[in-house]
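USER:
Class, as today's exercise, take the chain set out below, and explain how the chain folds.
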Amino acid sequence: MGDTGIQVGPEPLTFAEVVAVARDGARVTLTGEALKAITEARAAIEELASRPTPVYGVSTGFGALATRHIALELRAQLQLNIVRSHAAGSGPEVEREVVRALMLLRLHTLATGRTGVQPATAQAFAALLNAGITPIVHEHGSLGCSGDLAPLAHCALALIGEGQVRDAGGDLRDAADALAEAGIEPVTLGAKEGLALLNGTDGMLGMLVMAIQDLRRLFTAADLATAMTVEALLGTDRVFAADLQELRPHPGQAVSAANLRALLADSPIMASHRGPDCTRVQDAYSLRCAPQVNGAARDTLAHAELVASRELASAVDNPVVLPDGRVESNGNFHGAPVAYVLDFLAVPTADVASMSERRTDRLLDKARSFGLPPFLADDPGVDSGLMIAQYTQAAIVSDLKRHAVPSSADSIPSSAMQEDHVSMGWNAARKLRRAVDGLTQVIAIEIMAAARALELRPPLRPGPATGAVVAKLRERVPGPGPDRYLAPEIAAATELVRDGSLVAAAESVTGPLA
């Protein structure tokens, strides 16, 4: 567990705070302002619950069963039943970081004072996070409207001491035992609380926030891979000039081109073919147009960040408790805003990977690599070099193109047609996570190939920035030589891309890259 504490109140969480809790185990604390807002909203719910007038989720059934008025003596059972019945997920376990992000974001909505839960319920939710107790949430079960119902229900189930969880050590436990060991009292749900714990877009939003953080790093790594390949293929950097890029003033394009100029600065290889004898006036699109593609990916990411920031400032529940005490039904639980950008991000993720694979293929093709050995092999024919590493890239890219097909364009009605249009945002988030992982591997393989190619250009040496990257890679991945077991090397390179080590090596020369 991390030592850094995150204050959870009505104000929006930051991207960094979500990641700190989800991935680094940062502790959470409800602010005094949050507890005051929760207490005031709870009073409004208690007052409404005492009235004879039906209020959705307080004194009625749910979804298509909302027309039934629930007698006072059955209302505690009503809230318990919604948690148990909605915890209907199926398939593999969802990753711990996703569940922790989901829990944090639901806690934030509780902290806005718009849901009407008891203060003790919100405090117990925070205690689960701080104890490192992670409810078992399954891959399938959310339609992204009314929020991530089944995933959130599995979290609520743990809160009442039922179902299964993983403890801080990762061991599978009965929730009741894990709570008892952590000194957490199971929650007894009051009016509306079961519904309030379930009705949000928290899972898809948590996955969006983490994907945005990952893609920021990966798009910089894609520029790094591009620069190494341009250098290794004796390409030209003149096309990355600022005045050329300004003719088409997309912000992301300018950033990508600036990265490429910095990464290729002072390169002996680039300088070696700038003279009048050089006939290379135009490179292939996968080299020449990299700022346009990597830049457009950045601009797409910026739009996704805007949507995510708005969601982090939201209180998603139905019904909600308004500041004047009214409790009103609404449609804010619909996942469309998040689902669309999750799908949108999958498109440039696939395309950046596709361009990376095309550059790698050029490095390995004797007819297009300008003097490099076939497949960068030590003894071509006896050795296959990186031939099959490119196959791996191609397989991943093909899969990424499939993941670029939108989930949010689909809708399957549910709840006897009461919920007749849904976002499928959870599915969009799940496939984006797989796409981010795939892009990481594709970029890693290009960097492996480009590093080997740069070392096969003696007596010329790579530039200071790309040379620093090659040196960092060589700490984990050997250089050119006879064929060897490649899978561990790909895994090592992938981890160096994922954790930012290779970009950091370049930045030790260039300064911060964007």
User: Anything to note?
Assistant: The chain has 20 helices and nine strands. Strands lie at 5-8, 27-30, 90-93, 134-135, 138-140, 164-166, 172-174, 320-321, 327-328. The first strand starts at residue 5 and ends at 8. The chain has a mean pLDDT of 95.
